Amino acid sequence: MEAPRPAAVAMFDRIDAFVREIGETETEAALAELLTEICREMGFAYFALTHHVDLRRALGPNIRLANYPAEWIDFFDDNGLGPSDPVHRASQLTSVGFAWSRLPRLIALTPRDREVLALAGLRGIGDGFTVPAHVPGEANGSCSFATAGRTALNPDHLPQAQLVGAFAFEAARRLWHMRNPGLAPRPQLTDRQRDCVVWVARGKSDWEIARILDLSPETVAEYLKRARERYGVSKRTMLTIHALFDGAISFSDVLKH
Amino acid sequence: MVQITERVPQPLADETLRGMFEARKRVFVDLLKWDVPVLEGRFELDQFDDEHAVYLVVRGSSGEHLASARLLETERPHILDTLFPDLCAVAVPRGPAVREITRFCLDRRLSAARRLAVRNMLVSALVDHALAQGITVYTGVAEFGWLQQILAFGWRCRPLGLPTVRDRRTLGALRIEISAETPALMTRTGVYTTAGEADSIREAA
Q1: CATH fold of A191-255, please?
Q2: Shortest distance, CA A63 to any CA of chain B (angstroms)
Q3: Which partner from A129, A140, A218, A257 sits 20 to 30 angstroms from A175, CA to CA?
């Protein structure tokens, strides 16, 4: 086996030290400071570590840590870009980091997406690399790194960025759990409610679900009513979306057969 | 119930382990398309499934396989030092208190909600086993999506090297540190369940 190159070892030592440091941080500000520092060493100007929800509309507390230009963050929020940002959308489709130049190969970019990307460029954000972070039962998230102006990505730094992004997201999640004890998102449905919701997601009526699960239509209606109450929603569509979002049901539950 | 099976001279002759090897074939070969050997078209077994391996198996009320993991001794040949030494920038962790977690397997038939509960039971059993046996470090190789989930369990992890792309999969190696504070760290994330709680989850599931 070929011995690891000293440069790679030095790079790794730096990340190992970063991982130890972020493991000890007690505040988001301290984590942001450490991220800013390592971000610069990897040749990036900006980072954004976030859950992909519209932060101004989200009900629960969510994770966001970023040093993007303030002007760009405001634009992002004013336009409710959290869940529709093309970078965030692409990151739902993969579990490993991707350069933004690969976006058109990951998702079909709409005219609106191209406009968002162009506007980010105008506001001083250059090329970027996004590390997705998917934790079952929680909102999807990611940690992105971006260069300033016209600086290109340095491919040598991408494995580092992948590792830094993964560990930084978890450090932010740890702080979030410390701040919000007991709020760990958990499946909220009973098994029977869940069975019914899977069939709702497949487009079945209460009567059909009753036939399939060998229950009375009244019982099915009651299960679904309780399930909607747990999520505080009044429509079947919203019920299935919430259940998919928090992992009570999965896409494969709905799509199999 | 979590069953710990160790030092079985012929793993394939053991009923619990046979169910596990079948489940592993469904997950690692059929679903994840790993290029690993399959026996008789139904059992996934490799050279590390020998009398030195320790298996933790979560079984359902009628004995069926729900989840499992294989622990390998690190002073003997194991996955990290045999197949992926390039994933380590530092020396491969070895020693009597170091075990490698391999073939972490959640049965494909589990629904999303039950899958998380069963996964938590298996991860908790790994922690309990380490504490009972004086194991202080687990190592492991994981694809990145799974690696993020391993970090999210709440135990203390450190990378062993930079990620590497192998067969179009981005892999990383981890060192997981287990100590008396580990159960508390993992209770905070909702992952750690005591054996008693686990049995009631299993009965209800």
Answers
A1: Arc Repressor Mutant, subunit A (1.10.10)
A2: 14
A3: A129
Q: Which one of A95, A173, A177 has the shortest CB-CB distance to B145?
A: A95
> Under an 8 A CB cutoff, do B111 and A249 touch?
yes
Q: Where do the structural domains in chain B lie, given as residue ranges?
A: 2-191
CA distance B2 to A108: 46
DSSP SS3 for B22: helix
Q: Which amino acid is at A2?
A: E
pLDDT digits (tens, 9 = 90+) for B23-39: 999 999 999 999 999 99
CB contact under 8 A, A170 and B111: no
User: How many contacts does A have with B, using Cβ atoms within 8 A?
Assistant: 109
Structure tokens given for A101: 């130049």
* CATH code for residues A6-179: 3.30.450.80
What ipTM was predicted for this assembly? 0.90
- The yes-or-no verdict on residue A234 having pLDDT over 90 is no
CA–CA dist B65, B203 (Å, integer): 14
Predicted confidence (pLDDT) at residue A76 exceeds the cutoff of 90: no
Taking the CA atoms of A104, A110, A116 and A121 in sequence, report the sign of the dihedral they define.
positive
Return the domain boundaries, chain A.
6-179, 191-255
Pairing mode, strands B137-143 and B169-177: antiparallel
CB contact under 8 A, B170 and A162: yes
Tell me which residues of chain B have a C-beta less than 8 Å from any C-beta of chain A: 85-86, 89-90, 111-116, 143-149, 151-152, 154, 156-159, 161-164, 170, 172, 188-190, 204-205
Task: Kindly indicate whether the domain formed by B2-191 is annotated with CATH number 3.40.1010.10.
Answer: no
Ranges A146-150, B117-121, B137-141, B201-205: which has the least confidence: B201-205
Length of chain A: 257
| Other residues' Cβ atoms within 10 Å of the Cβ of residue B131 | 15
